[in-house]
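To: structure subgroup
Subject: Chain for Friday's discussion

All,

I'm putting the inputs and outputs inline so they're searchable in the archive.
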Amino acid sequence: MTLIMGAVNVTPDSFSDGGRYLQAEAAIAHGLELVADGADILDIGGESTRPGAVRIDPALERERVLPVIRELAAAGAVVSVDTMHAETARAAVEAGARIINDVAGGLADQDMLRVAAECHVDLVISHWRGHSDDMYAHAQYTDVARDVVGELVDRMEAAAAAGIPPARIILDPGIGFAKHGSQNWDMLRGLPALVGVGPRVLVGTSRKRFLAELLEADGAGEATERRRDLATAVASVLAAQAGVWAVRVHDVAATRDALRVAAAWRG
């Protein structure tokens, strides 16, 4: 069964739920709710990566996420830290995180691969071509799936050179990052090629702009959060059928139910 990673954004400005869980108490309660809903992993982030987001000081990021990680890990949750900062990653592991989820794939902080190797935890390497404020300027591909797979293989080799074995690497195609709407669909159709590389694959489509563009294209009105969550659940089932290890979502309960229906259908 494909695992479910529940997103907990301890931020004021994330594109979907920014500000709802900025206070540690609210974020911890939300994380526990996601576990009750069926989340296998909780991904805790303190810096928004929405399009146009401004970078924050790593000290502020740590101030936001460490109390949340500490409490959720102590409660028995499997915790991932969503960060591009190596020192935040190290501090998060010390607080109980078992996975480092770096949307920059080690390219934003030259110390990330070394820290991940020293911490002996799993590392999510995402496809990345630039920070949120200019990433779409780099959305130029010959063949999206082939180019993304090739660039992720390069990052996997860099991780191996830093001392991180393939068994501890998770690859993420970076849906929505430096990819325009149709390019995301091209990448999703190409998931089997990424799965075939070998390491586990994580996919996050949850509530993203390309889903809203699809839902609104027929003039059916605003792509509300509820509509985006339904579209996300469908996309997560299709990703699971392509062989991914886990999907990262905001609405864990809907995704759990959709995956269970798909599994029952397969028998």
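Points worth raising on Friday:
Strands lie at 3-9, 41-45, 79-82, 99-102, 122-126, 169-172, 200-203, 246-249.
The first strand starts at residue 3 and ends at 9.

D.
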